[in-house]
Write a structure and sequence with these properties.
Elements: H1 4-15, H2 24-33, H3 38-46, H4 54-68
Helix pairs in contact: 1-2, 1-4
Length: about 70
């Protein structure tokens, strides 16, 4: 279970990525799932038929790692 503060922080950071600004529900799902692998990020984006670039995927993974303390 994601702690509320961690969820809020990840959600806010993911919402700063331009691709997700139109899709807050996807940003919320990513914050909930805290994906550590690119395939997991792609699966969330694919649920809305959104094409996501590798740099955007890496940005999401970096955000998650920063917020859960994985280097």
């Amino acid at each position: 279970k994601t702690e509320a503060k961690v969820f809020d922080d990840i959600f806010a950071a993911v919402m700063e990525i331009e691709k997700f600004q139109k899709y807050p529900e996807l940003a919320a799902k990513l914050a909930e799932l805290m994906p550590m692998h690119s395939d997991d990020v792609r699966a969330v984006a694919a649920s809305r038929r959104i094409t996501i670039e590798n740099d955007e995927i890496e940005a999401v993974i970096d955000i998650v790692r920063q917020h859960i303390g994985v280097e």
